[in-house]
Amino acid sequence: MTTLVRGSSGTLTRDALTILQPGFVGTTAPDWLLRRIGEGLCAVGLFGRNITSPGQLAALTARLRAERDDVLVAIDEEGGDVTRLEVRTGSSFPGNYALGMVDDVDLTRAVAHELGRRLAECGVDLNWAPSADVNSNPDNPVIGVRSFGADTALAARHTVAYVEGLQAAGVAACTKHFPGHGDTNVDSHHAAPRIDVDLDTLHARELVPFRAAIAAGSKAVMSAHILLPALDPDRPATLSPQILTGLLREELGYQGLIVTDGMEMQAISSTYGIERGSVLAIAAGADAICVGGGLADEGTVLRLRDALVDAVRNGDLPEERLADAAARVRALADWTRRARGAAAEPGAASQEGTAPGSDIGLVAARRAVRVTPGGRPYEPVTEAPYVAAFTPVANIAVGDETPWGVAAELTALLPGTETGTYADKGDTPELVTNVLETAADRRIVAVVRDVHRHPWMANALEALLAARPDTIVVEMGLNRAAPTGALHIATHGAARVCGRAAAEVIAGR
After folding, report:
1. SS3 389
2. I need a labelling partner for 395 at 20 to 30 A (CA). Which of 226, 267, 364, 457 fits?
3. Considering only CA atoms, which of 371, 405, 373, 380 is closest in space to residue 500?
């Protein structure tokens, strides 16, 4: 039986478009996107493929707002390893793990404010950040350095500082990945992670940073595609009424915008499909559908729009729930429009350390470095070394287009520095032989990332140090393995500024 729909077909269609946050391909807005914005699409998601420079990005967002001035322009800009603004050069800001290592909430707030200022200057007003996940599982393949750390209280206080700094710059924060993606050993881009913890653990660990973010006024929260049997044994959080409505809305009292993680991720798309998944997400309590990291075309937008409208007409999705979701999106769009206006007023307040050109990111990266000397006093490298970068497969969130390491920064300080990239080929002796032969008599700098998670990397490093004990080791991921080398440098992230901070130590600058 078909339920009676009180709203008009036009209203339903507009509401369905309003809750979508799609992406697109290219560095200029395609005609189909502008047309759909005119029809009611209220948000657009930007990725690295859409950005070449601040000027280009500002022109792009201005073109989008020429269609409607309250369109939400969203981005996945965490700083650190996950950057879209500086996808081709590496970020000017260290990520959460580095900030958590420093544990100075004023510094975290200042970094987030400067990042927000740069986003706002380019016309971006919704940032799918910060990650509030407590990285309690050191083997987590997708969170890692994106988390402030494994300590619950530390993660909570820095999440608050990040939200405050970002939103003071007029950019809405989207705290993620609710109810917590830290205790997983599966990447939800590829499959559905499962967290088997009891409710007491969940409330004492995972939920603490989210409670803090809600109290701090985070304008949005992003759901995770993870299964928590203690809360819902059947559906992942993104599709669970018990989690989004029962826990987040009712128990935690959150009244802001609930955004889904990317619906094309395999944890949802391979089991439910993006159309049914989107309908179930809105029915469960989500207000906005993030899609566009992988599916970035008009056909995807139309499929989701029509699926939502049909679900209302068929009685699978209450009309009031769709209307409520659309109203929350419009309310956030109104806030961001007012925030842009306030920031543009003469004499608008600024934050110390966040002026244009501020090097607050490099300051933070330097403070995050931890240096462990080997057995002998360390003498700075004065001649061009050889950098051997042991490279794991990048996860989808980080991507493989963003450069990382120390070679470029060392080259700036020690011209003539050369580098080689080494991956797991299943033959450790051959790998190490290649490093030694290529390096010849130059000092070797071995760069690793999460060496504790990669046996091949640990074995290669051990063999290299046996052959060349004067090798300098730079760990740019989670610093879990015992320090080794003539000098061990832990940067707690692989952003460009982290590489710069490590290079300065190596060269004694």
Report:
1. strand
2. 364
3. 405
User: Does the annotation mark 189 as catalytic?
Assistant: yes
Task: Indicate which residue of 189, 225, 488, 492 is catalytic.
Answer: 189
Tens-digit pLDDT profile for residues 216-226: 999 999 999 98
pTM: 0.92
How many helices and strands, by DSSP H and E, does the chain display? 18, 14
pLDDT of 182: 76
**Neighbouring C-alpha atoms within 13 Å toward the C-beta of 26:** 9
More confident residue, 401 or 6: 401
Minimal CA–CA distance to 112: which of 414, 434, 353, 382? 353
Question: Rounded CA gap, 3 and 507, in Å?
Answer: 72
The b/e string for 124-138 (b: 16+ C-beta within 10 A; e otherwise) is: bbbbbbbbbbbbbbe
pLDDT, tens digit, for every residue of 30-50? Answer: 999 999 999 999 999 999 999
Catalytic residue among 261, 287, 450, 454: 261
Q: Largest Cα–Cα distance in the chain?
A: 81
Determine whether 261 is an active site residue: yes
- Residue 231's Cβ-side half-sphere holds a number of Cα atoms within 13 Å equal to 31
Query: In this predicted model, what pLDDT tens digit does every residue of 268-327 receive, in sequence order?
Result: 888 999 999 999 999 999 999 999 888 899 999 999 999 999 999 999 999 999 999 999
Q: CA 379 to CA 377: how far, in whole Å?
A: 7
Residues 6+ apart with CB under 8 A from 218: 163, 167, 173, 174, 175, 256
The answer to whether 174 and 129 are in contact (CB under 8 A) is: yes
